Amino acid sequence: MPSPLRITGFRAFWFARFASVMATSGTVVVMGYQIYDVARGRYGMSIGAASFQLGLMGLVQFLPFLVMTPVAGVAADRLDRRLVTAGAMAVDLAIAVLLALATAGHRLSLPLLFGLGGAHGVARVFFGPAMSAITPNIVPSDALPKAIALSSMAMQAGSILGPAIAGLVFAIYAPLAYAGAALLLVAALATMLCLRPLPPPPGNRRSHPFRMMREGFDYVRHQRFLLGCVTLDLFAVLLGGATALLPVYARDLLFWNGAAVGAHGLGLMRAAPALGAALTALALSRRPLVHDVGAKMLVAVAAYGAATLAFGLSRNFILSLALLAALGAADMISVYVRNSLVQLSTPDDRRGRVSALSGLAVSASNELGEMESGTLAALVGAPAAVVIGGVGAIIVTLVWAWLFPEIRRARSFTPQIAPQIAQSESVL
Q1: What does the pLDDT read at residue 416?
Q2: What pLDDT is recorded for position 354?
């Protein structure tokens, strides 16, 4: 099968995802640093109190997922997914412009940053399901695993360049970091609108929205293998998330040539996991996982926890970057297995809702993980919070291997999915 990149629509989709992720990941990094810096400087907070503000930002960004995930899933299945995605990009574009103006005018405050962070959470809750569900609409099913890996590579490449460049530009002239994000979002929005229209499946137009929401929940609940994969990622990353505390490490804990690594160092640290993930995604796009996928995912999640633990103990900047890259590589394997299962095992008329539920799990693990990390850091300090989280991720992996033997017994994707689909359809 030729590479999915030979398909014109997929190339446009790939660029739109790359540019939008590069813009938003850079924006989020700069916002995180500004929240911590404003809390420490303008509000005179201690390290612990300022760390807690980072946790609050995670909660603010998660609440839209908690409330609006069912609505976003139905929107992705009832509306043109291309337009839903473009609408989310437009919201992020407005956020970037407002932050550029507020930064240039020295009008930043914690309420403003939290408000715009919440608006970004709303954009993400609609962006994720619609964007994830587009790929199977524009590539043949036999090319989908490679397309998923390439799509993940676009996301990770954007996550590498976005934070690194934003951190560097922010150190030179802060408003320019947001202005650059705005330009990238304009390009992504224009490219997304160049895709052919993607009308929803005809049956979804006649289904009641509340019935569609219930069907999405039921479908995931009755696919035990899929349920185990999603919840494993949820709880492991929830406990093992260290990214929320990276501003603490950049400003107060990690040094280079006698000075704190600062905003530029923060950009490099936020880019390091994405670099590890991108290299892994590139390898998976060339040689997709075929055998023992469940066991490999469990090992990867345990490795994620071990890398998190080691990062918490490290005080060497270069070693810390290497550990963050290893953490990202391990997480990419888990993401690849989960996303392949979601896309390959879900009918197109339910794909948006199932992707939304998967996105809710990811957001719960990321944003609530930030809240958990920030709160724990306020109590025991950032290094101890990261170490405890890494140990927790390893423990969760062992528990899930026992609770969901279907995961460790999985030899490939297809044999595990087919019986679950039959069971789910009999229930629905």
Answers
A1: 46
A2: 61
Q: Angle, to 10 degrees, between the axis of helix 209-221 and the axis of helix 224-240?
A: 90
Taking residues 264-273, what's their average pLDDT?
82
In 3-state terms, what secondary structure has residue 288?
coil
As beta bridge partners, residue 256 has: 259
Provide CB contacts within 8 A for 90, sequence distance 6+.
Answer: 189
- Cα separation, 90 vs 153, in Å, equals 23
Query: In this structure, what token pair is assigned to residue 293?
Result: 């996928």
Residue 144 lies in a domain: yes
Residue ranges making up the domain that contains 164: 4-195+207-427
Cα–Cα dist 315/327, whole Å: 17
| Structural domain includes residue 152 | yes
Please give the helix or strand (H or E) that residue 184 lies within, else none: helix 174-193
Is residue 209 predicted with pLDDT exceeding 60?
no
* 343 found inside a domain: yes
Average pLDDT (273-297) is: 80
Q: Tell me 367's DSSP state.
A: I
> Is the CB of residue 205 less than 8 Å from the CB of residue 414?
no
- Whether residue 200 lies inside any domain: the answer is no
Measuring CA to CA, which residue among 229, 225, 248 is closest to residue 237? 229
Within 10 angstroms of residue 156's Cβ, the number of other Cβ atoms is 29
240 with 305: CB under 8 angstroms?
yes
Sign of the C-alpha dihedral, residues 298, 303, 306, 312?
negative
Residue 278 has pLDDT above 70, yes or no: yes
Nearest partner of 278 among 18, 4, 19, 29, judged by Cα:
18
CATH number of the domain to which 47 belongs: 1.20.1250.20
Give residue 346's pLDDT band: very low, low, confident or very high (50, 70, 90): low
pTM across the whole model: 0.68
What's the total number of domains in the chain? 1
C-beta neighbour count of 103 within 10 angstroms: 20
Pairing mode, if any, of strands 259-260 and 255-256? antiparallel
Residue type, 205: R
- Of 271, 275, 269, 274, the C-alpha closest to 317 is 269
Identity of residue 365: S
